[in-house]
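FW: tagging you since you asked about this chain on Friday. Here's the raw sequence from the shared folder, copied in full. Didn't touch anything.
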Amino acid sequence: MDLVLGQFAEENIANLSDEQLDELEIIMNEEDQDLVQMVTGAQAIPEKFQTPLFQTIISYRPDFDLVTAQNGHSPK
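HL: got it, structure written out here
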């Protein structure tokens, strides 16, 4: 989840309000395993995360080719 949240933050942080930044910090402090289970539907999304920002994050699709290229590997 760190890769997803990191890329999301890099691309969107400048456009987030102070309230959304606080919410993003709370989301980023959540256990990765819990976030993955929420995103995949294996766990219900708690009320505190039933927000437009969380919905935007879980629908975000990072470009993993960028991560691969930065680590010196060629994208497939």
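FW: The mean pLDDT is 85.
HL: agreed, and The CA atoms of residues 67 and 73 lie 9 Å apart.
FW: great, closing this out.
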